[in-house]
């Protein structure tokens, strides 16, 4: 019998992934260890691969105890919690799960947009609390035909744009550079895009390059009637500035799936009626999570099969 390759599992994973690991690899479950560094000192030597996620990330300090590490397979498309540059420098491949979640995250963006614009959460509460029998629900705002600005017209951004086109929205986008071959107008100035937009949808990458990209100036430009939607990373928005802008009425509303310090959401946001909150569930459907799980497995197995991962970042 062939000896199983040792795999470092950083955090809990969906059943499909953890069962596959269990059945095919010699798994070191890092999150169950009392002391991660001591466990790595004792058992890290033989680890050729690691499995993690956007949520659990990967710490550079572990690398000193993983001299044989060749591959990291991560669950999720975003990898801002993993130092891809350092992995590359050490000749370690990194795999993620792009594309299989595009539709789902775009659906989440639309859920937040429609839900916030039409007051879904407030309306539901209104009916449940019996208010309908004594008063009329206040008017909300239309989505169809409005101006939508997309920050980050990547693969998910383009699916969101397709969805918005179905609502006859006018679409413009901001990226670091103009994208060739897309039918939407590029806006080189983020502030100008915010000024023009009724809704500003954030779906760019996280990490240092986009940290607090959405600052006080951008939110004021979006304005008192503007709706800010975030399905990327909490770090892209200056949360303190956003709370202030919402409180002062300089920003109309926000619909958020991600936060700066997850799973902790600032108390002030919990109290606001013009804010819709979701617990980072952009890709969290049974169908999408199954496809993401399969990609994590395929990336890992692909590496052991012929050295090639299906979706390789570095
Ligand atoms: C998941 C995500 O919540 O794909 C991403 O980048 O943020 C989400 O799909 C995440 O992967 C869970 O760790």
TrEMBL record:
Q: List the InterPro entries hit by this protein, alphabetically.
A: D-isomer_2-hydroxyacid_DH (IPR050223), D-isomer_2_OHA_DH_cat_dom (IPR006139), D-isomer_DH_CS1 (IPR029752), D-isomer_DH_NAD-bd (IPR006140)
Which is a Pfam family this sequence falls into? 2-Hacid_dh
Q: In what residue span(s) does the D-isomer specific 2-hydroxyacid dehydrogenase catalytic domain sit?
A: 29-313
Matching PROSITE patterns? D_2_HYDROXYACID_DH_1
Q: Which UniProt keywords apply?
A: NAD, Oxidoreductase
- Family indicated by similarity: Belongs to the D-isomer specific 2-hydroxyacid dehydrogenase family.
Name of the protein in question: 2-hydroxyacid dehydrogenase
Q: Where is the D-isomer specific 2-hydroxyacid dehydrogenase NAD-binding domain?
A: 110-282
